[in-house]
Amino acid sequence: MMATAPELLTDHRGNPLPVQTSMLGYEASRLGIAFHEAGHAVLAMSYGFHVVSSEIDVLEPEPGRWNLGGMTVLALANGNPVWGFAAQAAAGALAEVRYLMVHGLWTPERAAVCAAAHDREHAIDVVAHAGHRLACDHVPVGGKSWGQVRGMALRKVGHLWREIRTVAHAMNEHTKLTGEQIAAMTGLTNPPMPGAVA
């Protein structure tokens, strides 16, 4: 068995990603992860970010036991909207919860597993690096709360649900999609890689 790449097991700070037990079978859990990553990728592209790739990560630490995760890689550039980055970070969990609701799988416990606190913490760090403030439980002066960002993302997830659904099913089938593949199947524009000469 191949060793797992360390970056697939840690968050942007190098901390281990949380491990939570899914209350769904393998196929439903895998599709849920695909919706989560599709939410990130589609919203990022809609906000003008270059999407490099989006994928489902499947690890089998022992026969019959699966660890599922995902990763969407963006190429950030000066001028990308900082609140758009935060909204795409929130979109993963929102798309996964909507998948549960649409497929009749939603329960409060299953929705809680979708929370993805590491996505929120990543957004807080990126927003802070850009000189803005994003807070979990209040609206900071001159900034936004995570609730406000989730509201932005929820509206976009609703408007782009067809695109998210298309990407999620393709990702579930192929495991990994490039940004160009996502753009082709959704009609969205994947901006050029930052620094690329046209």
Structure description:
- This protein is α+β, with helices and mostly antiparallel strands and 198 residues long.
- The chain is built from seven helices and five strands; from the N terminus they run αββαααββααβα.
- Helix 1 packs antiparallel against helix 2 (82-102), helix 1 packs across helix 6 (161-174) and helix 2 packs antiparallel against helix 4 (117-129).
Determine Rg (CA atoms, Å).
16 Å
Taken as a percent bin, the fraction of beta residues is 15-25%
Shape: globular
Number of strands: 5
Main pleated-sheet profile: 3 strands, antiparallel
Mean pLDDT: 89
Discrete helix count: 7
What is the H-and-E element order? HEEHHHEEHHEH
Helix amount: 40-55%
Structural class, from secondary structure content?
Answer: alpha+beta
Low-confidence stretches: none
User: Which oligomeric state applies?
Assistant: single chain
Q: Taking strands numbered 1, 2, ... along the chain, how are they ordered across the largest sheet?
A: 2-1-5
Distance between the termini: 41 Å
Characteristic terms for this protein:
198 residues, alpha+beta, three-stranded antiparallel sheet, two-stranded parallel sheet, 7 helices, 5 strands
What's the structural blueprint in terms of helices and strands?
Elements: H1 26-46, E1 50-62, E2 65-75, H2 82-102, H3 108-113, H4 117-129, E3 134-135, E4 144-145, H5 146-159, H6 161-174, E5 176-178, H7 179-186
Parallel strand pairs: 3-4
Antiparallel strand pairs: 1-2, 1-5
Helix pairs in contact: 1-2, 1-6, 2-4, 2-5
